[in-house]
Amino acid sequence: MDYMVILPTLNERKALARCLTSSSRWGLLLERILAVDGSSTNDTAKEETGAFGVRHPRNMGYGAAVKTLMRAALAADAQYAVLLDADGQHDPTDIPKFLQALKSGADQTASRIQRRRLGYKALALLHRILIAKLSDPFNGYRAFSRKALETPEQDFDPSYGVETEINYQLRKTKTAEISTTVKYHEASSKANPLLQGLNLLWSIVWTALTKRPALTLTLGATSLATSITLFIYALTIFNATRYIRLTYTTLAILLEIVATLLIAIAITSATTRK
Question: Which residue, of 49, 51, 82, 237, has the greatest Cβ tally within 10 A?
């Protein structure tokens, strides 16, 4: 099979129905559409009639759905896979642009849209520094070559941090950024913006720490050395003045806790990777 369109779904009965019935307008065949239902409660799975569908026995999260879709595309011998949301916010007419970029030599394509929210831009900048250089790293509308589909080996974050993990694992592959249009509406996001932002922040930091154990160990050792230095300085002041400097002492304790966590993460991550 040349390509597949893969859609993670959860309680998207009406949107998925529109997505499937308009497939002929996109120039797509139903047998090239693969939907994974995350154990919806509103009969979403019934709308998958005519398309190849997989249903998780329970809601295993967005990341698990994406992993299932990527594996299923490989099993179907697809050379390319286009991932988009089933809630209608991604414009399927952009699919040919994604496929053309892959056929021209890209290993993956990423969406590029103009974002104006300061918080999003800050997260994107942090992602650019710690993970990979992408203009819009958290957009779920993207496409993969077979090489890119085969690259990720481990399970993904079950929440919306999956894009960060994919971006890290595919950071060395050739990426083409495609300008797309996102249509936001009331049902386009089920997550609280603040909680989603915190989740993305955590996924960036956690991915950076666990995927680079040597760097994490260095940070832990530096924090520990700084903590010891502050303890010695605070003790010196106490011996001279009998006055406890709470600022230095508290900071030293906090740094020691951070150092312990970082060193533990580094050792665990290095052991797991082996």
Answer: 82
| Closest by Cα among 185, 263, 192, 188 to 224 | 263
Query: Beta strand pairing status for 80-83 and 52-55?
Result: unpaired
CA–centroid distance for 52 within its chain:
25
Neighbour order of strands in the sheet with 108-112: 52-55, 33-37, 3-9, 80-83, 142-145, 108-112, 175-179
Whether 159 shows a pLDDT value over 50: the answer reads: yes
Q: Does the predicted model carry a pTM greater than 0.70?
A: yes
Is residue 102 exposed (0-12), middle (13-18) or buried (19+ Cβ within 10 Å)?
A: buried
Separation between Cα atoms, residue 123 and residue 208, nearest integer Å: 13
Q: How far apart are CA 82 and CA 95, in angstroms?
A: 7
Mean pLDDT value of segment 190-214: 86
Residue boundaries of the structural domains of the chain: 3-210, 212-273
Superfamily grouping for domain 3-210: Spore Coat Polysaccharide Biosynthesis Protein SpsA; Chain A (3.90.550.10)
Radius of gyration of the CA atoms of the chain, in A: 23
Distances (CA, A) of 146 to 28, 176, 201: 19, 15, 29
